[in-house]
Predict the structure.
Amino acid sequence: MARTIFLRFLPVIFLVGVFSILVTHAALAFSGSGSGTSGDPYIITTCSQLQEMSSALSSDYKLGNNIDCNVSPYNTGTGFTPLGDDTTQFSGAFNGAGNSISGLFIDDTSANYVGLFGYVNGATIKNVELKSVNITGGLYVGGLVGQTDGTNGVTIDKVEVSGSVSASGNASVGGLVGLFSVGTVSNVYATAAITGAGQAGSVINAGGLVGYDSGTIENSYATGDVTATNSGTNSDAYAGGLVGQTAGSSSVIIKNSYATGTASASGATINNDMGGLAGFCGSGGSITNSYSVSTPLCGVANATINGGSAGGVSLSSFYKTSPLYSVYTATLAWGFDNTWVFNDTNSLPVFTWPVTQTTSVSSSSSGSSSAPSCGDSVPTSAPDLFQIDTSNDKAILYFAPSSGSVNKYMISYGLTSGDNRFGVEFPQNQQSGVVSYAISYLTPNTTYYFRVRGGNGCMPGAWGNEMKITTTKNSKSASSYYESFAEKLLSFLPSGY
């Protein structure tokens, strides 16, 4: 039988004539550079300046460097005060510019809108990593945002969150957002552990990325474990690897997303529903080309589910024991172009963009800011790929290393020339002789195109030449050589030979 799930809200009691005022970190005029406009945003360089955003919640901001919030007074007591609440929401723009905010600490179960941003309305938040957050709050709690307003759409793009996030009461809690109302969340991921604890008459919605969703989520993933525990009469608990509960609305769209964490819901007297992707999938919404390791995909599957099933995608398909990309390109119709690349090391699709990097943003006296930059030296030459050996499902690449500063190499490969759908990065500072690297789990009797480039810290080098090889049908081996193989081999011999 279909069930309609409603959020329950705790009554608010106003005591006339009896009140108290809690003073935390007072809002101050912004002390950094810039004027707070889209063309000249305020430049944030310290956690103190991050907190000063509370004094101008409709302005534009940009991080000028990595921010450490594990400093006094933001790492003691209740910690950092969330930016915005249900009375005065954050409605500006925040650009992390590829920088990180580490050690964000909030511990206030009496607060209802908790996260870096407590409550946002019509805002844009992008290009930032929240590292090792430790956040505990009341009703709506997220690593990035507690709640978004249902009036004006919010855009969240290229954000990652790690650490732990927890909530208590009639709560919605997520690694990224507690309650997401209207707008789009895209190109995001969370690895945070999520915990929601309820009480009699309450609903707990706990998700690895979003607690309660009524908007659009696309190109996202979550890997943290999710626990929703409720108790007492008339209570519900919903836990999902990506989303706790989706609204029964056509505005709900989840696509090109996955979750790997374990979801657990228990203790409630009415419903304890858990799913690898979502605990409760409301009617009217759609879930497209998305999947989870754990089954079922939805604890309660009332939504339209395409590109997957209520049973989820099997573990054997999720990990690459069959053709490397078939689950993503054929079964789920994912495109591996500018968004995703297949990580050969952990067998998961990941984003092509690194949110975090060594960057610096300076501001002139006029307040204008420069683009993010990297201080590491670029390798001075590209690797020279000259031989590939293959047998059945494995390829071993041999290449002459990059010269100059280099501490890692990146291999990109796909099924057509210039195809970058798969990739692997490995540490290596060799600058002479021959470097070799083996790639496994390839599809037998399939042609692959490979190329290599060196890297140094946050600075990648140029791609080298491209080579192709066709894997064998059986255990027999084969080799492919670049046109200049003979010359390349001679170049490694001592002079005089």
